[in-house]
# Entry
Amino acid sequence: MAKIATVITNMFEDAEYTSPKGALEAAGHELITIDTTAGIEVEGKNGEKVKIDKGIDEVNASEFDALFIPGGFSPDILRVDDRIVAFAKEFMDDMKPTFAICHGPQLLITAKTLNGRDATGYKSIRVDLENAGAIFHDEEVFVCQKQLVTSRTPEDLPAFNREIVKLLESKEG
# Structure
């Protein structure tokens, strides 16, 4: 099963972490939470607490099969750290499965990895996605090149969860 790097920090959208985490773990995958420092506890916008497994300096993208970026304010906070941006860029450059919901694509915008790619995201980042060269789709979930899965809002979680699990199943075969 897949080992999934989950980049997350304070102010993440709670359901956009807990719901995909539940779907991925139910399918047998392992999530490793990553922030700037290991061992700290981060808190979601609605109070969900998550312990960080690894600091960004302790990990290498080659150790993981996929990248998961929950939404909320977390991706915007994370993208100021060049190490986290480079980490995300490596997944996209290597065409490893990458899952971003709501504001999650902001990290991929900063990594300059969306030019010519099909994606969706929260309404407020549509222009940012288009300015980054992405082809925006106002759909509940969009899968680009059997690698990048994006969704817009917590309401899209059932479709997002279905597609991320399905993509990982297709990679196993």
